[in-house]
Design a protein that fits this description.
73 residues, alpha/beta, five-stranded mixed beta sheet, 2 helices, 21% helix, 30% strand
């Protein structure tokens, strides 16, 4: 859904889901474009209260994810 370029930092690839469920299929689009970027950081932002890593993709609540993505000072 989003490709976020941050000066001097890794590009962030984001998939946004409104569900609380964490489903492996949610990251398929991220993984399909991953190799187009140099070591991207990948997130699935959702409504879950849990944060988990599935391979190279972080599934995280959307509010926490936004803080994490943009708090790079």
């Amino acid at each position: 859904d989003l490709i976020i370029e941050r000066p001097g930092l890794s590009t962030v690839l984001v998939e946004i889901k409104s569900t609380k469920e964490i489903i492996d299929d949610h990251c398929k689009n991220l993984l399909s474009i991953e190799e187009s970027f140099s070591k991207p950081i990948m997130y699935v932002l959702n409504n879950s209260k849990n944060t988990i890593m599935k391979g190279r993709v972080k599934y995280i609540n959307w509010k926490e994810g936004i803080k994490e993505i943009f708090d790079y000072n």
